[in-house]
Amino acid sequence: MANHYIYLISSLPMLIFGMKPPFSFEKLVSSCKGLIPDEDIETLKTAAMPYGKEAVEARNETLLKWRSFDAMLRNELVKIRASRKKIEPSKYLRQDGYPESIYTAHIAINAYRKPSILEAEKALDLERWRSLDELAFGHYFDLDALIVYVYKLLILEKWEKIRASGRRRLLEENLAPAAS
Known about the structure:
mainly alpha; globular
């Protein structure tokens, strides 16, 4: 099986934060079959898994850097929320050897200060997107570029679900008075 990263990646549509995802993660993985090695497809599937044993065992440098950044950001959010509730955060922190970062602390504080939960989550995802852009630097037609693409696609899918649930709720609220 030949590695066709150049063909595959150049055929993918550009992703822009806030856009509707052009296709699902599952469709992306299925379109990769036959174009890239099966072990790379498994790495892409691992990228979409929640943190667990597979996350610790990941061998790809971009995947490890992304998980480190995301874990640092989540740890900072835990510290902020714990201080607000006046509880000890240590039992909620990921202790996988992730260092602390002033950069991620700044991101977490800025998101926490947003007036709504939705705005805060959007600010966090925008910073995640920017971090993915940094990870993509120097990677154009390789597995690392595809991993970054997967994470961006997953962010877009998350926001599409949020938009869809909001539309559904608004429709139900507006139709409920008419039905009675």
